[in-house]
Amino acid sequence: MMARRLSLSLTFAILIAFLAVTASVSRANWPSNRASASAPSAAPAPGASGYHLLKKIKLGGEGFWDYLAFDSPTRRLFISRGTKVVVLDVDSEKVVGEIPDTPGVHGIALVPDRANGFTSNGQAGTVSIFDLKTLQVIGHAQADKNPDAIIYDPASKRVFAMNGRSGDVTAIDVASGTVAGTIAVGGKLEFAVSDGAGHIYVNVEDKSEEVQIDSQKLVVTARWPLAPCKEPSGLAIDVKHRRLFAGCDNKMMAVVDADSGKIVATPAIGDGVDANAFDPATGFAFASNGQSGTLTVVHEDSPDKFSVVEDVPTQRGARTMALDPKTHEVYLVTADFGPPPAPTATNPRPFPTLVPDSFVILIFGR
Predict the structure, then answer these.
(1) Residue 185 and residue 172: Cα distance in Å, rounded?
(2) Is the distance from CB of 280 to CB of 295 less than 8 angstroms?
(3) Whole-model pTM?
(4) CATH code for position 280
(5) pLDDT score, position 61
């Protein structure tokens, strides 16, 4: 009996010790609310980004679309729609105005410090200048053939229009609305960004290269091949860490050192990308993929390490986007599609037809 009691006591002591060790290990793995409150937030590990569809706003109307621009102070989304720009108040979900007579409009550049905006009118080869408050057109500037992407550079106080067919860039002085000069680049120019320190970067789609431009001297200062990236379109920038994010047609995001042109990383994205964005507050880089119907979210773990967090389901055709850096919301647009018309000699790859009155705004957030 004594031996049995000793055996039971020994067993019980071992069990108590095991439970104490287990509890200690478990507590070590529990998150500390006190530490979380005082320490800076850690970079999110790869996994769910938290982005999901918050709202879908039906706008309807006719015509295809291209780039978007978001004005955070007024909560207005500018949407290119063929021959006009539609302006939507995203909180009231109401159209508050239109910028008319912009034939073949592609992009919108906002200049908040002058309360002006600029549109690139591809068919007309012009740039419309409008008042940001009243949305009234107040002037025009002559560009070259098919001005496509258009951006504002605060360092030079100029707007730059990328002329897709003539392969050059038109620089417009925002104060006078006059052309300051034209930069010969060559190739099919796609989207561009400014680093705010005197450099413009533009994707050359048919050459798969990145071009750096001096925004003051209006000259090309570097040309960098983007291989293995093919046919880059969308472009975004992390100004602090000097990183460019180019959306490539072969389903990758080329992360480029903005000073050396070195390819830092090539995270996988979806099919049919046409726009990219970067949120410095969260470290997320985005690619909107129209063919896949996804929004790829990539996290900047460090300036030289990037992780694909997830591909958020969106809707087919949602290929262009705008980011609100204050709320971190992402805005996409698309519509429903029918079968494409029969190919012709002049149009061997026709676009699908749009289902009437199906145009929508998709708002994604965390």
Answers:
(1) 17
(2) no
(3) 0.85
(4) 2.130.10.10
(5) 86
